[in-house]
Amino acid sequence: MEKVIGIGEFGISNQVNDTIRTYALASCVAITVYSSKKKVAGMIHVALPMPGEKNLHKLGLAYFATTGIPLLFERLYNIYGCSKDELKIHMYGGADSIRQDDQFRIGMRNVEAARSTLAELNLMIHHAEVGGTCSRTLLMEVATGKVQVTTQPLSI
């Protein structure tokens, strides 16, 4: 079965016939996590670095790097029995805007927030494909942890 992860969502599976997919990562960041020992795969698609005072409850914890990433790992540890040392962590997305006047630089800020959140959790990124000016779609196989990345140039 294919699980589709939307913006501000995460998913975890231990069913080896499953795949996990997310579409069109531009400035958003996806973290993929895999335990080859337990055949457990997880993915989160975050849109913003951190919540503001008013938008956390409206958008949900997984919408933000600083709140969603810890939630993903909490579930991997407590529900699926994974341990830190068995997890392979990849990061994708965080594209730069093709507009020259982009003052917000959300893509870069999402990458920085994801990196610092993972560091606070004492987790190491094993592979990163971030930045640039392309949109990325990911397909992750639960059986192997393999992540297929499809890119498309960003347009105005």
TrEMBL record:
> Per UniProt, which keywords does this protein have?
Chemotaxis, Hydrolase
Top EC class of this enzyme: hydrolase
State which Enzyme Commission number(s) the record gives.
Answer: 3.5.1.44
Catalysed transformations (reactions)? L-glutaminyl-[protein] + H2O = L-glutamyl-[protein] + NH4(+)
Write one Gene Ontology MF term: protein-glutamine glutaminase activity
List the GO biological process terms. Answer: chemotaxis
Among InterPro entries, the record links this protein to: CheD-like_sf, Chemorcpt_Glu_NH3ase_CheD, Cytotoxic_necrot_fac-like_cat
Q: Does the keyword Hydrolase apply?
A: yes
Q: What does this protein do?
A: Probably deamidates glutamine residues to glutamate on methyl-accepting chemotaxis receptors (MCPs), playing an important role in chemotaxis.
What family does the entry list?
Belongs to the CheD family.
Sorted alphabetically, which HAMAP family does this protein's record hold? CheD
Protein name according to UniProt: Probable chemoreceptor glutamine deamidase CheD
Q: Which organism is it from?
A: Heliophilum fasciatum
